[in-house]
Amino acid sequence: MPPVRWETLTVNGQAMRVYLGVPEGAPRRAGILVAQHGPGVDGFIQDVVNRLFRQGYVAAAPELFHRYNGAAHAFQNFLDAARYRERPASGTWSEMLAFFSQHLKP
């Protein structure tokens, strides 16, 4: 498995992609969740994960808009803001953190 890769986990019954960097071997530094910006997990956010990974951190950038097909563009041009209002996401962070902590173990 490549050390920097896309993985998919299930959150509230739906697939959520996560761009993940896991340094091989020990010691690993702390884990860092990288929050996406409006356009989502694009090249800029992937570069942030890559840079943290190269410094020895486990880094992950979850696609937080996974529940909304193509939602990232709505935050740039506000075509249909009502369509993208936040839905209950109580499980998203707890499931993401459980997934992330699994990768912190050497």
Report what the structure shows.
- The chain is 29% helix and 23% strand.
- The protein contains 3 helices and 4 strands; from the N terminus they run E-E-E-H-E-H-H.
- Strand 1 (4-11) and strand 2 (14-21) form a beta hairpin.
- It is an alpha+beta fold and 106 residues long.
- The chain has a single domain, classed as Alpha/Beta hydrolase fold, catalytic domain (Rossmann fold, 3-Layer(aba) Sandwich), CATH 3.40.50.1820.
- The radius of gyration is 14 Å and the shape is globular.
SSE topology sketch:
Layout: E1 4-11, E2 14-21, E3 31-33, H1 43-54, E4 58-62, H2 74-77, H3 90-104
Summarize this structure briefly.
By secondary structure, the protein is an alpha+beta fold. The protein contains three helices and four strands; from the N terminus they run βββαβαα.
